[in-house]
Specification:
homodimer; alpha/beta; Rossmann fold; 8 strands
């Protein structure tokens, strides 16, 4: 597994770089998903189960972005999917140029779906377009249902909200209806799934959405 | 309860501003604690219980820093402690100048302990000295024991690590010994407490530390 060391991109316009990258990926028929969440919300665990379920239906690769360590990329490689670990040189987010360099590190193989697991952070990643075709965010039950009030931009920028760790809901005060109502107030079009990677609850709906998103991207 | 709107400080040196502020607070006998953690790690809940237990022993105030909302400051005010809500204008951290303005908003009353509940973020707040006398970080059991590997700077910069939500440990794969070993590898001097705000486990040790820290600061 490859570890690449990235630096913040010095560029006139991250938005323009992101648009260019998105166009190239569209041309190739590769859907890039920008997966964002707080530390420990369950991004890698969601991906492990998703790859396990879909690996015979589509070609999947993962770019793990972290300040340090390679623990997530090692976990992804165990699923059989191709993974690279990107170190962000202390940076709290990925930009479009960093994403391009991480994609280059995946090599020449064609993929239907590439997931960028962004740095664990509910603020900064939402401010930078990476060139992804879709933005997906996770919020875990233990984090609390008030998070849309405190981190509005992430909910505004995401196409999909996945509420994770629903198996532990009995042990936390988490009102899913209140959470979804707050998210929809910021972003009326956001698609919401509730899942437990432990029990598998909700994965069918999420994976159906993903299969359709990959198919739509190729048209 | 007062809400103040802050902007990033434009200054030659945040480190110098922080040193100046720390000196002034030392002079006044006010210990400022910079409390940092991921979103939803339990910062406000820890403070609610701590204030409840210590409010007759010391004069405590809280500065809540968030991108948006006032939910945390409203919760703190219910404990009877003075609170201000600082909005960070989208910023992912507090700097020394922002901290000074939040302190000003607390008014002229003397406090033994002021807690800055920093923006929920395990990366950026660790990069900015706020002028605090002590840095305390939380890591909640649901976030996972691998976090020192992925967010090393926060563990390096903190004087105290409080592992929270230990009541839900049976439902998560969290190895406290592995977590503490990883934290101590980065920061051999870090003081560690494990607490549950639900059951009260571990609060006596944490509050004893806090009482001593406040007393030491006045000497």
């Amino acid at each position: 597994m490859r570890i690449i060391e990235l630096k913040e991109t010095v560029t006139a316009s991250n938005d323009r770089d992101a648009e260019t990258l998105r166009g190239e990926l569209k041309q190739k028929g590769t859907l890039l998903i920008n997966l964002m969440a707080s530390p420990g919300a369950g991004k890698t665990t969601l991906l492990e189960r998703t790859i396990h379920d879909l690996r015979d239906r589509m070609r999947i690769a993962v770019m793990e972005a972290d300040v340090d360590s390679d623990v997530d990329a090692v976990r992804i490689e165990r699923t059989g999917a191709k993974a690279v670990q990107a170190h962000t040189d202390g940076m709290c987010h990925m930009d479009a140029g960093m994403t391009r360099r991480a994609l280059d590190a995946l090599g020449e193989d064609p993929f239907d779906l590439v997931v960028l697991e962004n740095v664990g952070n509910l603020i900064c990643p939402a401010e930078f377009d990476t060139g992804a075709g879709r933005c997906v965010m996770l919020l875990s039950v233990p984090e609390g249902d008030d998070k849309p009030l405190k981190y509005p931009l992430m909910f505004t920028k995401s196409d999909v909200l996945i509420i994770t760790k629903t198996d532990v809901a009995p042990y936390f005060d988490f009102d899913p209806d209140a959470c979804i109502r707050r998210a929809r107030k910021l972003n009326p079009d956001i698609t919401v799934f509730t899942v437990s990677a432990k029990t598998g609850d909700g994965f069918e709906e999420w994976e159906d959405w993903l299969i359709k998103a990959v198919a739509d991207w190729k048209n």
